[in-house]
């Protein structure tokens, strides 16, 4: 079937690769969205001819509308516009590749409308927690993981049809550009150093998260939500080459791993074509060329963000939203040259130690309130 796909965050790293996959599959694009990348979104609209184009930034949306006046495309603005196109009844699937908690309302909008969701935006699942998974269940909408590790686990489990529950998840990590470094050595690292990921080309925010190991912490939380496995049965394994994308251990001790070249087109395509596997435009994996795969334990003490995320998911509830919000703000400050690399971890750890957000029953507005509290905390502390 030639699917109809909405791509949220189409101007980013995942968004651009998703469009390439959709073109190769011959899928129709219903809507494209971004924040304020007017030039690239205009180019994408002219190439893919969606019915809707949205910019979250209202004034950028006005500029886009002016530029696209010659085309039969509806141009919308604001977060409302993004949510509106996420919920279109004609969407067979919505691919959410927005970065950060800005993806949460669109995730909710797509699921509320009963649309299947190919989810790259891990922050919406981390911060929204059970609100997101419960909604998907209630609306019978499926969440198809795009994040490479979660796609790997999903594949090892046999997709939604898998018969055997996992005994344990083996979540792999590259270790990032600073693998093996001491805190002393990390004191002077720059944003440029942190942006040099050894294996993956990605947007700036997730690349910094990989360098701090926050990304792995977010991914543990994402795995708990997607696969219902408690955090103590998720082992993080540093797999330096990013060839094994993750693995599952079953009751009999058998371990099934998913491998491939580190190219996001594979998990993006699998989320869109599931349960089919179709040819994909990526280089083939040659294990003999790679020669050897290396494995290590992660260093949760040097990389404080990871320890903080594990603590947050053990506490559960709104704590994952708290560390996520603190991290988003801290990464912004680091990229702007306002705080050091190590301060990201210090602030994420401190927000957890100093803000109590224990609450058994919570709703979406509580999540956004905790997110704001975390950001304010980081801004206040960084300004001291
Ligand atoms: N890149 C990767 O390989 C992987 C990414 N992911 C996850 O996928 C998501 C996207 O990552 P990535 O593609 O790297 O990110 P990018 O920064 O490259 O792209 C982000 C996209 O989101 C849009 N956006 C930013 N802010 C807002 C906002 N406030 N409202 C609406 N749209 C917004 C951007 O628009 P604009 O261009 O206008 O700023 C852009 O289209 C993240 O959650 C990341 O963790 C997961 C696994 C791998
Ligand atoms: C491609 C992908 O899924 C990223 O999340 C990747 O895993 C980042 O690499 P790290 O393992 O270094 O966090
Ligand atoms: Mn990942």
UniProtKB/TrEMBL annotation:
SUPFAM superfamilies cross-referenced by the UniProt entry: 1-deoxy-D-xylulose-5-phosphate reductoisomerase, C-terminal domain, Glyceraldehyde-3-phosphate dehydrogenase-like, C-terminal domain, NAD(P)-binding Rossmann-fold domains
DXP reductoisomerase C-terminal domain span: 259-376
Binding locations of 1-deoxy-D-xylulose 5-phosphate: 122, 148-149, 174, 197, 210, 215-216, 219
GO terms classed as biological process: isopentenyl diphosphate biosynthetic process, methylerythritol 4-phosphate pathway involved in terpenoid biosynthetic process
Pfam families named among the record's database cross-references: DXP_redisom_C, DXP_reductoisom, DXPR_C
Entry keyword annotation includes NADP: yes
Pathway annotation: Isoprenoid biosynthesis; isopentenyl diphosphate biosynthesis via DXP pathway; isopentenyl diphosphate from 1-deoxy-D-xylulose 5-phosphate: step 1/6
Enzyme class, broadest EC rank: oxidoreductase
Chain ranges of the 1-deoxy-D-xylulose 5-phosphate reductoisomerase N-terminal domain: 5-129
Known catalytic reactions: 2-C-methyl-D-erythritol 4-phosphate + NADP(+) = 1-deoxy-D-xylulose 5-phosphate + NADPH + H(+)
UniProt-annotated binding residues for NADPH: 11-14, 36, 121, 123, 203
Keyword entries, A-Z: Isoprene biosynthesis, Magnesium, Manganese, Metal-binding, NADP, Oxidoreductase
Keyword Metal-binding: yes
One of the record's GO molecular function terms: manganese ion binding
Xref: InterPro entries: DXP_reductoisomerase (IPR003821), DXP_reductoisomerase_C (IPR013644), DXP_reductoisomerase_N (IPR013512), DXPR_C (IPR026877), DXPR_C_sf (IPR036169), NAD(P)-bd_dom_sf (IPR036291)
EC annotation from Swiss-Prot or TrEMBL: 1.1.1.267
Chain ranges of the 1-deoxy-D-xylulose 5-phosphate reductoisomerase C-terminal domain: 143-227
Cofactor(s) listed in the protein's UniProt record: Mg(2+); Mn(2+)
Binding site for Mn(2+): 147, 149, 219
Family: Belongs to the DXR family.
Function according to Swiss-Prot or TrEMBL: Catalyzes the NADPH-dependent rearrangement and reduction of 1-deoxy-D-xylulose-5-phosphate (DXP) to 2-C-methyl-D-erythritol 4-phosphate (MEP).
Protein name: 1-deoxy-D-xylulose 5-phosphate reductoisomerase
Organism: Ligaoa zhengdingensis
Gene name linked to the record: dxr
């Amino acid at each position: 079937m030639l699917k109809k796909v909405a791509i949220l965050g189409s101007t980013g790293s995942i968004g651009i690769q998703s469009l390439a996959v959709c073109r190769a599959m011959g899928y129709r694009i219903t809507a494209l969205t971004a924040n304020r990348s007017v030039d690239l979104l205009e180019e994408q609209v002219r190439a893919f001819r969606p019915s809707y184009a949205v910019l979250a930034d209202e004034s950028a949306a006005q500029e886009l509308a002016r530029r696209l006046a010659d085309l039969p495309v509806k141009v919308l603005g604001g977060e409302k516009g993004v949510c509106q196109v996420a919920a279109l009844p004609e969407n067979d699937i919505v691919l959410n590749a927005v970065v950060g908690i800005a993806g949460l309302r669109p995730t909710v909008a797509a699921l509320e409308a009963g649309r299947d969701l190919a989810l790259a935006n891990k922050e919406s699942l981390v911060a929204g927690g059970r609100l997101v998974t419960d909604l998907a269940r209630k609306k019978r909408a499926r969440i198809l993981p795009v994040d490479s590790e979660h796609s790997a686990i999903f594949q090892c489990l046999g997709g939604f049809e898998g018969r055997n529950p996992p005994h344990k998840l083996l979540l792999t990590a590259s270790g990032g550009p600073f693998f093996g470094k001491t805190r002393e050595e990390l004191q002077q690292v720059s944003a440029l150093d942190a942006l040099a990921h050894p294996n993956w080309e990605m947007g700036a925010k997730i690349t910094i998260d990989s360098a701090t190991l926050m990304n792995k912490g977010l991914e543990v939380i994402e795995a708990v939500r997607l696969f219902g496995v408690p955090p103590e049965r998720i082992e993080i394994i540093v797999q330096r080459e990013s060839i094994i994308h993750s693995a599952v251990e079953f009751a009999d001790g058998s371990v099934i791993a998913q491998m491939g070249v580190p190219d996001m087109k594979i998990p993006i395509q699998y989320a869109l074509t599931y349960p089919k596997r179709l040819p994909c435009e990526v280089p083939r994996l040659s294990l003999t060329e790679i020669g050897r795969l290396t494995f290590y334990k992660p260093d949760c003490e040097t990389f404080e963000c990871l320890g903080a995320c594990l603590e947050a998911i053990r506490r559960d509830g709104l704590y994952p939203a708290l560390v996520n919000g603190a991290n988003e703000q801290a990464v912004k400050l680091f990229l702007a040259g306002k705080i050091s690399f190590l301060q990201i971890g210090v602030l994420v750890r401190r927000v957890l130690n100093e803000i109590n957000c224990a609450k058994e029953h919570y709703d979406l507005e509580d999540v956004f309130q905790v997110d704001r509290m975390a950001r304010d905390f980081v801004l206040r502390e960084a300004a001291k």
